[in-house]
Every structure is written in structure tokens, then in C-alpha cells.
User: What shape does this take?
Amino acid sequence: MRTLFADPRTDFVFKRVFGSEAHKGLLIAFLDAVLELDDEHRIEDVVLLDTEQRPQVRELKYSIVDVKCRDVRGTTYVVEMQVLNVEGFEKRVVYNVAKAYTNQLAVGAQYPALDDVVGVTICDFVLWDEVPMLSRWRMQEQHSNAHGLSQLQFVFLELPKYTGGDQPTSIIDKWAYFFREAVNLTLVPEALAVAPFREALEAARAANFTEEEWDAYIRAGMAVQDERGALSLALSTGEQIGRKEGHKEGHKEGRQEALIELLEERFGELSEAALERVRAAEAEQLKAWIKRVLAAASLDEVFGS
Assistant: This one.
């Protein structure tokens, strides 16, 4: 049975809401909100960039760097949704933004012509305990606290930090509420019954999906849950075996077993060299490798070699 609205945190729906010409105004409204732009500096228009224009990097399966656009001032925005906090996440965010910045030279630009790049990341997990739900980052001189080198900026919206309940009031709270609760709604709440949120809900309305689109949406959601479950199961299995053994070596052996099972599921039968590497690793290294399996495309990437 279809829900009233599909989950905007999934790849398919996120692209539908923010990555299409038909709903380009939603992307502009969202960027205006998270960048906290006043009327004088609001974004007038954006050009959605083609896949070929995006940074040529392999993205993690859970990351949706699927909306990249440029405004009339030349600023590029790299917008992504991240539903799982995997190892190296923050570094990858910085890499994607920096890559979008340096890729401008690939089309013949000189250094003075390089335009700013802003990375906007919506996280379905907590990154930092000490910062607010919406945080904005740029370089700062450490002695005087002066801001500079603003060519690269980062914005993070950490959805679990939302505390507005069913009555969001601020624009940012309403966007967070939309991302978190759209899939659970049975009607359009009063707080989201105004622009641009009503349009966002309409774009996510399940009844507007064809059967093929609904199937694609379900498959995307299942893939996320499968991978999230694989990580949780691997870690918990290792800890359970460790508790049963009742000592430090037990935890290590549990993680070894969990890691070997995950690696063989992803990459097939392991060589003796790979098995020996797992057996020789300490417990914390094993835990890090378990987390890395989700994003890795090869054994070398898991082991960091």
C-alpha cells in the first residue's frame, strides 16, 4: 500500500523534488533558506548542471550528490542527501566541493575567474553535538577570527536535531520537518500548506508516481535499509560474540568473523593473504574496516591500501 507521500530522503524522490526543471523553484527556495539569504541577496535563478559537468568521482551508495547547479552570479551549489554516516564522510564532502571548484579550470578558466562553490549536505544523523541543526562553515583566521578565503563554503542540516514536533515555525524547521516526516503524513499539515512546502509535498505525492516510478522508489529504499542493516548486524554480531567470550580477545574474534562474512558477501571468497590480514588486525581496526566495507569498491579500499 502506498503512503500518501514518498520519502524525500531517498535518491529517487530527492531528485524528483529538487533536481528537475519543473520544480527548480523548490531548489532555489531551499538554498535561500539554508544559506539564510536576505531579500537583497536571494538567488534569482539557477541552471541545473548535467551529469557530465559534475565532479568525476565515485560517490558512496548512500550519498546523493544529484543536484548541482549554478546561479546567475556564478556560484556553484553541490547539494546532497546523506542517510548513513560512513567512514570518511566529512572528507568526501570537502573533496566533492573542492573538486567542483577545481573543475572550473578544466574548461579553460584562469584563477581570477574561478567562482565560489557551496556544499549543502542534509544528514540523517548527528555529526557534531556542539553545533545547531543548521551549521555553516568557512575558513577563519585563528588569531583575529577574521573570515576569509570564502571560495569554499559548507552548510550542514542535521535532521535528528529537529525539535519542533508537529508544529514547525521557522523556515529551516519546516524544511527539516518535511524531510523527516513527509513519508509519515496522512494529510497536508497546516505548517506545510504554504509555498514552497506544499509544492514539495506535491512533488513527493505517491499518487503521482507511475507504477515504474513507485517500483524504483521502493527498490531504492530497500537498498538503503539492506546496507544499513548489514552494517548494524555486522557490528552487533561481533559484539555479541565478544560478550559471550567475555574478554578482549572475544571482541576481536567476533569482529573478525563479522568482517570476513561481510567481505565474502561483497567480494567473494577471500585469499589467504586477506584472511591473514584480518586475523592480524586489532579490534578497533577491525571495527573501522567493517564500517568501510559499505563504501568500498574493492578489498584494497577496505584495507586502505
Q: What stands out?
A: Residues 11-208 form one domain.
